[in-house]
Amino acid sequence: MMKQYVLLLLSLVACAAVLCSAGCVTTEVPEGAVVINQTNGEVFSLDHTAERIVLMNSNAAEMLYVMGAADKVVGVSQSIADHAELGPLFPNAVSVGKWDVPDIETISSLSPDVVIAFSTSKPLNADAIEAGGIPICYIDCYKPTTMAADVAALGALTGNTEKAEEFITFYTGVMNAVAAATANVSSSPSVYCEGYTDYSGQAKGSGMDLLIEYAGGSNVLTQQMGATSPKVSPEWLIAEDPDVMIKILSVKNMETAADQYRTFTGRAGFSNLHAVTENRTYLLRNDIAYGPRTFAGAVAVAKMLYPAETADLSVRDVLDEYNSRFGLNVSAGEVVYPAFA
Fold first, then answer.
1. Are 170 and 159 in contact (CB under 8 A)?
2. How many whole angstroms separate alpha carbon 30 and alpha carbon 241?
3. What does pTM read for this prediction?
């Protein structure tokens, strides 16, 4: 089962990252140096913990705040600075421009120990940044299968391992609760998940595909379809007739969820789909579908697939606990539409 695999992987990668940070991988690591595995599996090292950090990755930004390292952030991308929830967490950080093409002179002026960016979407001028003597560490904090390792790596990189471990314990605890609630289900509902663009499916390997599989669903899109967000035709989707449909919305678009829902379910040919006639079509806000809050996304998807078995689980409760335990105020408002009974 995917859920047992994910839980085992979360535990193993967290332990591996902690061992690596402790210097157990090699005896040649200088005293005080930090050696971690990046999300892409490549090794990254610094001769000391990072005390001055520039952030290109919004997921890593949230995690650094969670583990008490926000004071080490001296620069952020403009998208982080403008983010309604994340921007205020770094009031003293300087904007270094676009996340994909940051301003090298501004970064250099901040004398950072490291720039943290997405491994899957590297800055276009990464080579120029590194040529200037500024190392870049690629940590995603994006998918559930790599979350524990990524968080452990950030904790080691900043010297904030205790809070990193606290988050990992919380995260895996919620995932364990989802696994326990759906452990004895015999069915595997077919699921179509769509990204922001109409008919842009979420195929094998995507973040939502991992949540669907973890929750016990069967993604109607397969690896053979190519990209993780392939365009599908209305005719293909209607012929597949999935049991459940999920549409990912941005925080802004979720403010008009009722209208968005009517538009989604009212597409030509959708009126006879099982997911529509059986009221198993949902909108899911992107901040719990991807990134550090995917523990809440796992709860949400499991409740979509198995409402009876997951009746005791609450998306809002796990988000409230996250906020309370780590001093945040994230994911206000509705994150799933229609709301669960």
1. no
2. 58
3. 0.89
